[in-house]
Each structure stands twice: as C-alpha cells, then as structure tokens.
Write a structure and sequence with these properties.
Radius of gyration: 24 Å
CATH topology of the domain at 17-141: Immunoglobulin-like
Largest sheet: 5 strands, mixed
Shape: globular
Structural class: alpha+beta
Strand content: 15-25%
CATH class of the domain at 17-141: Mainly Beta
Number of helices: 13
Bound molecules: heme C
Order of helices and strands: HEEEEEEEEHHEHHHHEHHEHHEEHEH
Distance between the termini: 81 Å
CATH superfamily of the domain at 17-141: Immunoglobulins
Length: about 350
Amino acid sequence: MLLLLLLITVTAFGGEVLSLVRPAHMQLVRENALPVVVSADPTKVKELIVTVVKESFPVELAPAPFEVKELPAGATVDRKVLPVKPGKKFYCTHVKLDYGINEVRVVAVLKDNTTEEEARKVYLYHPLLIPYKYPPKEFQPRFFHTDEQESRCAACHDMSRPPKPKKNQPLEQLPPCVECHKPVNTKNAYKHAPSKFWLCVFCHTGEAGKLNRRFAGKTKYLAPEPVGDSCYECHEEKLEDLELMRFHHVPVLTGKCNICHNPHGSDERFFLRLPKWELCVSCHEDKAFRGHVVFTITGKPHPTRGVKDPRFPKKELSCSSCHNPHHSDYDFLLYEPFRELCASCHSAQ
Ligand code: HEC
Ligand code: HEC
Ligand code: HEC
Ligand code: HEC
Ligand code: HEC
Ligand code: HEC
Ligand code: HEC
Ligand code: HEC
C-alpha cells in the first residue's frame, strides 16, 4: 500500500511545480459545472489562481432568432483563488463556463513572486443555440472516468462504481459522485428528482445508445444517446403517448428528450434548456418573424407571446399553449382539434 502511494506520488508530481490534471485540452463539455484539478508543489507555490476567459467564436454565423445573453471575448467568466497549504499537493475546485470556447488558466504564484501558468481550451456546447450547437471538430469529449485517470484520485476519493439504483427507492447512502459533482445539482433553481437525489447511475450506466456507440467502453458513466429509453423507465406515461397517439414531434420520436430538457435541472421550469418561446423558435426560426395561425385585417399575425393566456390568467401565451411539444392526436400537434382549440380561448366574447 505504502509503495503504491509512493508510486502515485512520484507519477503524479514528478517534481513538477504545477500540473493541470483536469480539464483536458480541446475538450467538449456539455454540463456547465467543470471540475478543475491541479497538482502543485507546496514547497514552491504559495497561491493558485484559476480563471476562465471567454474566447470569440471562430466563424461568423447567422445569429439566433432572439437575443442570447453571452459574455464578450476576453471577459472573465469565473475566477477562483486557492491558497496553497503545506504538505497539500492536490487542489480540486469547480468553475463556470460561458457557451462556446473558454480558456481555463491556472497561474501558480511562487514563493519568490514569479509565476508559472498552464492553460486548456474547453468548449461548452448548447444543443439549441446558434452558433454554440456547432462546435469546431477539434473539440471532442475527453472522458475522465477510466481506471487509469481515476487511479490518480483514489488516494483521497472513493472511486468505486455504485450499482444501478432502483427507480422508486431512495438510496441507502449517497454515492461518491457527491464529493466531486455537487454543482451539477446546486447550480439549478429547478432540480430533476433523479439528479437531485443522486441516482446518477440510473442514466449513466456506461452503456452507449444508437448515436454514441463510438464511445462504448470509453467511460464508466456514459449516458446513452438517445436518452429517451432511460426517461421512459420512469415517465411511463410518455411511452404510452408514444405508442397510442397519432402524431409525434420529431425530436421526441427520436428519443432526444435532452435536446429540450436538461436531465439534471435548469433555471427554467420543466428543466427546459431555454424559455419556452425561445426553445421552439430555436428550431422553428420562421415562427419568430413570420406569424401563423391567422393574419388579421391589419396584417397583424396571431400573438405567440407577450400576452396572457385567457384560460390561465397567470400563464403567458406561448407556443405550447396551442401545441403539445411531445405528441398529439391532432394535426400540427395541436392540443385540440382546430375549431375547439380556437374556441378554448375565444369563447362567447
Ligand atoms: C490529496 C488528496 C486528493 C487527491 C489526490 C484528489 N483530491 Fe479531489 N478533493 C480532495 C479534497 C480534500 C476535496 C474536498 C474539497 C477541498 O477541501 O478541497 C476534494 C474535492 C474534489 C472536487 C470537488 C471540488 C469542489 O468544487 O467542490 C473534485 C471535482 C475533485 N476533488 C476531483 C478530483 C480528481 C478528479 C482527482 C484525481 C485526478 C482528485 N480530486 C484527487 C482531495 C484530493
Ligand atoms: C474524484 C472525483 C470524481 C468522482 C468521485 C466522480 N467523478 Fe465524475 N467526473 C470527475 C471529473 C474530474 C470529470 C471530468 C469532467 C470534465 O472534465 O468535463 C468527471 C466526468 C464525469 C462524467 C462525464 C463522462 C466522463 O467520463 O468524463 C460523468 C457522466 C460523471 N463524471 C459521472 C459521475 C458519477 C455518476 C459519479 C459517481 C458514481 C462520479 N462521476 C464520480 C470527477 C469525479
Ligand atoms: C435522467 C438521466 C440522468 C441523470 C439522473 C443524470 N444524468 Fe448526467 N447526463 C445525462 C445525459 C443524457 C447527459 C448528456 C449530455 C446532456 O444531455 O446534456 C448527461 C451529462 C452529464 C455530464 C456531462 C458530460 C459531458 O459530456 O460534459 C456530467 C458530468 C453528468 N451528466 C453527471 C451527472 C451526475 C453527477 C449525476 C447525478 C447527480 C447525473 N449526471 C444524473 C443524463 C442524466
Ligand atoms: C429514475 C426515474 C426518472 C428518470 C430516469 C427520469 N425522470 Fe423525469 N422525473 C422523475 C421524477 C420522480 C420527477 C418528479 C415527479 C413530478 O414532479 O412529476 C420527474 C420530473 C420530470 C419533469 C418535470 C415534471 C413536472 O411536472 O414538473 C420533466 C420535464 C422530466 N422529469 C423529464 C425527464 C426526462 C427528459 C428524462 C430523461 C432524460 C427523465 N425525466 C428521466 C423521475 C425520473
Ligand atoms: C421539442 C422540445 C421537447 C422535447 C424533445 C421533449 N420535451 Fe418534454 N417538454 C417540453 C416542453 C416545452 C414542456 C413544458 C410543457 C408545457 O409548457 O406545458 C415539456 C414538459 C415535459 C414533462 C412535464 C409535463 C408533462 O407533459 O408531463 C415531462 C415529464 C416531459 N416533458 C418529458 C419528456 C420526455 C420523456 C421526453 C423524451 C421522450 C421529452 N419530454 C422531450 C419540450 C420537449
Ligand atoms: C430540436 C429542434 C426542434 C425543437 C426545439 C422544436 N421542434 Fe418542432 N419540429 C422539429 C422537427 C425536425 C419537425 C419536423 C419537421 C418539420 O415539420 O419541420 C418539427 C415539427 C413541428 C410541428 C409540425 C408537426 C406536424 O405535424 O406538422 C409543430 C407544430 C412543432 N414542431 C412545434 C414545436 C413547438 C411548439 C416547439 C417548442 C415546444 C418545437 N416544435 C420545438 C424540430 C424541433
Ligand atoms: C394560438 C395557437 C398557436 C400558437 C400560440 C402557436 N401555434 Fe403553431 N400552429 C397553430 C395552428 C392552428 C397551426 C395549424 C396550421 C396553421 O394554421 O398555420 C399551427 C402550425 C404550426 C406548425 C406547422 C405548420 C407550419 O406553419 O410550419 C409549426 C411548426 C408551428 N405551428 C410552430 C409554432 C411555434 C414555434 C410557435 C411559437 C412561436 C407556435 N406554433 C405558436 C396554432 C398555434
Ligand atoms: C391559448 C389561447 C388562444 C388560442 C388557443 C387561440 N387564440 Fe387567438 N388570441 C389569443 C390571444 C391572447 C389574443 C390576443 C388578444 C388581445 O390582444 O387582446 C388572440 C388574438 C386573436 C386574433 C386577433 C384578434 C384581435 O382582436 O386582434 C384572432 C383573429 C385570433 N386570435 C384567432 C384565433 C384562431 C383562428 C384560433 C384557432 C386556430 C385562435 N385564435 C386560438 C389567444 C388564443
């Protein structure tokens, strides 16, 4: 055991003053809670400064059909200062990213006030936002959960893999994921139950799906793509709709629930990736500019936002006031047949 520890220490530090262990370089990231792990020589370093700096998108693309909140190139996205303690060689933290390309820089301030620096580029992907859904191909997933990489952490962290949890049973004890992935849950205003209660391995079984077979065996915790079948294990009512209803929305039919929903949670209700109207027009761009349903005498199209839904005075009218985002028995995924739909809001008056 002692020999093993010694070995880990030697291979992990190799006498280096500073070494950025994670993230990997040119890494494609899909969750905005990036672990940063640094090894530093405490006899030489007195402070570690981790900063995330936004870079511009490499090519000009047509903008999204609505305003996207993003930071300008060069802006500091996140910053963490880690004081170095005697005898402590590993420093672990988390940073936030902005969409697109970010540079994660770690500066070691040495005791003689000189500095050493290491940096990595990472790309935060968004499946709906232009241009961020088009990552340059140099950015690829660089998986962490392999025996080799995990062996560097095992001295301090439990790296065992819990069995797949049962869906309606609370866990007897929290899995080791909590130690390293807390922000996956804490950052979201609305948390999806299986993520909130740390049933991570329910979805991250390590098995690939039809669309990510090339990643089979590359990490212990792969999520299948498409993820739909995992969702149906708990949301049986949605599987029933899929089997019984006549019309299906293409991204639902293909099981890509995670295009619209973040499986962990989000600041939007129903864990949506964007507010409802923006969510729909990010794919149905024409609906942002061209009205549909009716054109009044004045040429004004039917509102799709910015007014109250007459049926539910507290709700804003949106695309999903008329359309079921998943399935329907009626043309155009309407909630009700055409005439009844109109009447549901435009009754007697
Ligand atoms: C020398 C012991 C040690 C080693 C080795 C170590 N860690 Fe940690 N790690 C800790 C401690 C202690 C914490 C709790 C937070 C703290 O006190 O820094 C932690 C916390 C973390 C966190 C959460 C940070 C946060 O923002 O809350 C992550 C992520 C992490 N470790 C990843 C890793 C990874 C990945 C490795 C292996 C490459 C690793 N650690 C190796 C001691 C270690
Ligand atoms: C020692 C800290 C640590 C522990 C414990 C840990 N993870 Fe991770 N995990 C990481 C780091 C670091 C990454 C790499 C993140 C990155 O760079 O994007 C990662 C990445 C992942 C990924 C992305 C796929 C991959 O392999 O890169 C998934 C999914 C994941 N972890 C799930 C889990 C689950 C589920 C558990 C608990 C069973 C767990 N992790 C426990 C540190 C940890
Ligand atoms: C309901 C299914 C589900 C649950 C539960 C779940 N995940 Fe995920 N997770 C996914 C899917 C699907 C992805 C793929 C990326 C996406 O859709 O954003 C993902 C992506 C990730 C990633 C990012 C991988 C990358 O490519 O950057 C990490 C890290 C991660 N999950 C960790 C966790 C942890 C930790 C938990 C438990 C707290 C958890 N997940 C629970 C479905 C789930
Ligand atoms: C392990 C079981 C489990 C899995 C797997 C699962 N969910 Fe859930 N989900 C739940 C539970 C429990 C709730 C909370 C119950 C509720 O509020 O209706 C919930 C709630 C939701 C909600 C919010 C419902 C509401 O009315 O607020 C959405 C949206 C959702 N899940 C989508 C998904 C998607 C998409 C997937 C696949 C990526 C998925 N779920 C996978 C158990 C699961
Ligand atoms: C095209 C985007 C989109 C896709 C793809 C999608 N959803 Fe949804 N989902 C939504 C929207 C929008 C809502 C909010 C509904 C509302 O406004 O009433 C929602 C609500 C939900 C809810 C809670 C309310 C309800 O209808 O029960 C669940 C559960 C849910 N989705 C599960 C899933 C599952 C499972 C999948 C994959 C099979 C999926 N969703 C795919 C957009 C989507
Ligand atoms: C990921 C992209 C994507 C998102 C997000 C999306 N859709 Fe779709 N939608 C499609 C595709 C693909 C089709 C099928 C091709 C087509 O008819 O254009 C489609 C078709 C439709 C149709 C026509 C169905 C028919 O039977 O003719 C309606 C209505 C619709 N979507 C409404 C919505 C609403 C409402 C939302 C938001 C909750 C939404 N879509 C979000 C991709 C998307
Ligand atoms: C007031 C109800 C209502 C609202 C709100 C609404 N739609 Fe529609 N939508 C309809 C009706 C009715 C149709 C049937 C065909 C038509 O009249 O254009 C339709 C047809 C569609 C179609 C398929 C035919 C086509 O024109 O491409 C899509 C896609 C669509 N809507 C997307 C959206 C999106 C995206 C939004 C939000 C920006 C939205 N709808 C808001 C009622 C509505
Ligand atoms: C979810 C509720 C809802 C549904 C369903 C709906 N509408 Fe509307 N409609 C509205 C609201 C809200 C307004 C805006 C009223 C205002 O500005 O005071 C509106 C405005 C209109 C107007 C313009 C009237 C004016 O005074 O400017 C027409 C015409 C119209 N709707 C026709 C339809 C038709 C046809 C359908 C069925 C395809 C339909 N609506 C379905 C909520 C709805």
